[in-house]
Peptidase M50 (Mycolicibacterium fortuitum), 165 residues
Amino acid sequence: MTTSDGVAVVGTGPVPRPLRNLPKADLDDLAIHRRLVVTGGEAELAAVLSALLRADRLDVEVAAATGQWSARRALRAAARRVPLIRDETGTVLVSAAQWHGLDGAPLQGEAIVDDVVLFDGEASGVRVEPTTNMPGLRASVLSDRGRPRRWVAGRAAQLGTPAPR
């Protein structure tokens, strides 16, 4: 693959050898490329995906590269579609998110995944993770020790809490 193929490297992480001859891209010019290889961590991957979402350019292929093997795979492997999960601010969720109550207090309210109630009342917390297959995410109420209990798959997770007093 050459630079004329529209592949660019994004991120502040070390650039693996197979990617060193590729152009660097900034968050401002992501949409002009056909494929982007992100060299940073999950936060940078989320930033790149969020920028593409805001630019309405989800047709751009994105790969994460943390070393030699993943860099070669990012250049040569065929892209595959995966669900994209975002929060209410338009920030893409790459690994996981957790909801907790204020200052260590139990979380109060109701959490729902699609039409399944995760909890109604109090819970230690909720963990939400994207999945590589449809419907796109899974969520679980956390035990008092912070471990997920029963996972529920769905397209959307919502949390409703009482208004602050």
Observations:
- Residues 48 and 132 are 18 Å apart (CA to CA).
- The two ends are 58 Å apart (CA to CA).
- Residues 42-54 form the longest helix (13 residues).
